[in-house]
Design a protein that fits this description.
The protein is of the alpha+beta class and about 300 residues long. About 25% of the residues lie in helices and about 30% in strands. It has a seven-stranded mixed sheet with strand order 1-2-3-7-6-5-4, with helices on both faces. A five-stranded antiparallel sheet has the order 11-10-9-8-12. The longest helix is centred in the C-terminal third of the chain and has 22 residues, at about 215-235. It is globular and about 55 Å long.
Length: about 300
């Protein structure tokens, strides 16, 4: 989740600070009672909000209840942010909402299967709660991307700090493009000029495409409001209660897709949703396969409708 520009300092930008800075009082008011339970830290710049929180939770006692309430850390600028498989996440200050949530879930490591998908469901629910045009156009791409009209709106990165037989400490990183889609597309286009088209993934987009007055404050509150009950439910019931909702939000449902590993196609088939553990169900020429999240990428097949 990298950025390369300093926050605007001109008078016009200062007059519209609420458009790019987070109004903490408004965010807390919109988050409601849980805002007093979840500490919300907002910093100008850091290497990575995930890394910041990982350091802290690694120092906790390794037991359930070690962190009574989740911690939220937001940064306008991340100089060493990253996405899945260590890829950098590019964003300019004020254009993207970059935050992480640290929590301890009452689940062993194997009980975390599908957590990124459950977080995806919550994130889509949160974004759809905003007055966006065509809320149904906000959908999910397995395993951890949120799409808007087929383009990438947000990404999720979950890291495990430690795990025991009855608890796991995790950090959930979320990056949502709120504004500046054209600038981001140009930046990524230049960086990916030598990458084969099939390996590039979805083009970036921003929430502003569906909500002209989109801002970081309301987007943060909407996400936290959806995450709070989702994490509670996942801790109690794992991914199973999220399965139907994920499948209903599936951007590629019934479409031919390919799975890539290190840029090379390993299999293809028709996307048939996910199972109760969050594994992708793929109908192939050899029958239905269950694909676990790993070092694979999902793409629409060429010419897929």
């Amino acid at each position: 989740m990298n950025a390369s520009r300093t926050p605007p300092q001109d008078p016009a930008a200062a007059a519209n600070a609420a458009d790019w800075r987070i109004d903490r009082e408004r965010a807390v008011a919109l988050f409601g009672a849980h805002a007093h339970d979840w500490p919300i830290e907002i910093v100008e710049e850091t290497g990575s909000t995930n890394a910041d929180l990982m350091t802290r939770v690694k120092a906790l006692p390794r037991r359930a209840g070690a962190l009574p309430r989740p911690i939220v850390r937001v940064a306008y600028l991340q100089t060493a942010g990253r996405g899945r498989r260590g890829r950098p996440w590019y964003a300019e200050p004020g254009n993207a909402l970059l935050f992480s949530v640290a929590c301890v879930l009452p689940r062993p490591l194997e009980g975390l299967a599908g957590l990124s998908l459950a977080v995806g469901v919550a994130l889509v629910d949160g974004l759809r709660s905003l007055p966006v045009a065509g809320p149904g156009q906000i959908a999910l791409k397995w395993p951890n991307d949120v799409l808007l009209e087929g383009d990438k709106l947000a990404g999720i990165l979950i890291e495990t700090a430690w795990s025991t037989d009855d608890a796991s400490a995790v950090v959930i990183g979320i990056g949502t493009n709120v504004k500046g889609a054209a600038e981001l597309a140009a930046k990524l286009g230049a960086l990916n000029a030598d990458t084969p088209p099939q390996a590039r993934g979805a083009a970036p987009t921003a929430l502003q495409r569906a909500l002209p007055n989109a801002n970081l404050t309301d987007t943060l509150a909407a996400g936290l409001n959806a995450l709070e009950p989702a994490l509670q439910r996942f801790g109690a019931e794992c991914f199973a209660p999220f399965q139907a909702r994920w499948n209903a939000m599936h951007a590629y449902a019934g479409r031919e897709v390919v799975l890539l590993e290190q840029g090379q196609e390993v299999t293809r088939g028709v996307a048939a949703g996910v199972d109760e553990r969050g594994q992708l169900l793929l109908d192939t020429a050899a029958g239905r396969q269950s694909i676990a999240t790993g070092d694979v990428s999902l793409r629409l097949a060429d010419g897929a409708a």
